[in-house]
Amino acid sequence: MDWKSFMEGSKDLSVFALALRAVILYIALIIATRMMGHRQVGILSGHNYLVAAGIVSLAAIRMLNPESSLTSGIVIVFVYAFVNVLLSYLDIKWPKAIDRKPTILMKGGMFLRENMLDCHVTLDNLLGQLRLKGAPNLSEIDSIVLEPYGKISVIKKPEALPLTRKQMNLPPKMVALPTILIYDGKIDEMNLHQMGLDHEWLITRLREKGIMNLKDVFLAMLEANGTVYVSV
User: Fold this and answer.
1) What is the pTM of this model?
2) 11 or 129, greater pLDDT
3) GO cellular component terms (predicted)?
């Protein structure tokens, strides 16, 4: 294989060489994404979005065009990642200078039309977002805030809020994540012991569901309310 043509690009590259270039570029994208951290994937600020769009466009061009340079593509991917990490760090130190700030779209139950115009938010779009938030009735809403990453936060009026267990003088509800007890026919001994349970308790729960053979169980989980979920 002509490695110079492979790295710098050539119209005569074989299908195997094109596939290998795509794999290398894909691995570079994964490494760059890991460098950028969870913020890039979960919370997109303005510069995060631009970096993501730029990297995707760059990768598509390098993967489809055999005459494009793989070396320059990899260099640009990591430069993009470095710039994004730097801007994210500066965003943490000086958020008002780097990124946008939250914008209030409704206050005291009244729309702030100037802020909606500044943010280019249409009424139809806002109403759609409110429906997705489970807040379709405007009379129940006190405030709406447009967050820097494009989502809206809704604050309802006190009289529209649901009753809490504390207000009803009920004991607090146990909050815990579901715990895997069996996966693919094997007991998770660590989880079982951490929950203060033993094999006898687990086998009894399985027999109550008509399951006699542990190997038949694909997944068994202990949920927060004490229910044992079983899938065979």
Assistant:
1) 0.54
2) 129
3) plasma membrane
Rounded Cα gap, residues 93 and 80, in angstroms: 20
CA of residue 80 relative to chain centroid, distance:
21
Tell which residue, 164, 166, 158, 109, has the closest CA to residue 138: 109
Tell me, what's the pLDDT at 40?
47
pLDDT of the residue at 42: 46
Q: How far is CA 94 from CA 50, 88, 189, in A?
A: 19, 10, 47
The rounded Cα 219 to chain-centroid distance in angstroms is 25
Domain range for 195 is 179-231
pLDDT tens digits for range 16-48: 888 888 888 888 888 887 777 655 444 455 556
Is residue 66 located within the same domain as residue 122? Answer: no
- Which of 75, 96, 117 is the last residue before a domain boundary? 96
E-strand ranges in 98-151 read 103-107, 110-111, 141-146
The DSSP letter of residue 166 is T
Cβ atoms within 10 Å of 35's Cβ, excluding its own: 14
